[in-house]
Amino acid sequence: MHTLPSRIRAAGMTLLEAVFALLLLSVCLIPAANALRGAINVPADSALAARELDCVSALMESVLAEPYGDLFAAAGQPDAPSSYSTPDGASAPRTAQGCPPMTVTITSYGTDRTRKLGAPGTSSHLLRVVAFLTADGRFPLATLVAQ
Fold this sequence. Notes:
The chain is about 40% helix and about 15% strand. With about 150 residues, the protein is α+β, with helices and mostly antiparallel strands. It has a three-stranded antiparallel beta sheet, with helices on one face.
């Protein structure tokens, strides 16, 4: 009887080893595929975020270009949208530039009598202007405007 050398007999994989290798490969591939799916969406998500940030900064620049008297007249409560806000609501269309609805709040800031600055201020010389996306409050830009 002719026998094969032991090296040749042990050259293949058993069914159990093959099943274990496939199981291990499938367990590792699912998280890797999910990571790749997320990485594929990053450019589109970051482009949208950049566009939205540009919209908020453009609105802030246009508000800050207004005369101080107009801004002071539009000042109200910290949570109340001013007249400089863009249309809001779920049915509001995007503007011609593709911008989503944005909110602008303008409030008096500081106190004249004690010369201390603070949010609940009553100063007519200093305004706090905040612009952000209406839907989720992202990209808040805030600044102080002096008379």
